[in-house]
Amino acid sequence: xxxxxxxxxxxxxxxxxxxxxxxxxxxxxxxxxxxxxxxxxxxxxxxxxxxxxxxxxxxxxxxxxxxxxxxxxxxxxxxxxxx
Length: 83
Known about the structure:
By secondary structure, this protein is an all-alpha fold. Helices cover 60% and strands 0% of the residues. The model has no long low-confidence stretch (mean pLDDT 77).
């Protein structure tokens, strides 16, 4: 087999209607959170000419309203992936 061959496995999951409302709320909360972090990052770059690190962002996002639906652990972990 060629070493450049890559395999992809696709998983299919059915979301029951009773979970759709909760998932929509969580999706909206994630979207609000990422928009907040993006806006904050752009503002800091524009005003201070410096980039925020994953260690700087938590002090700005503490008490974010979307955290009530997502949980503080999710917010903390997602900030690690912010560029």
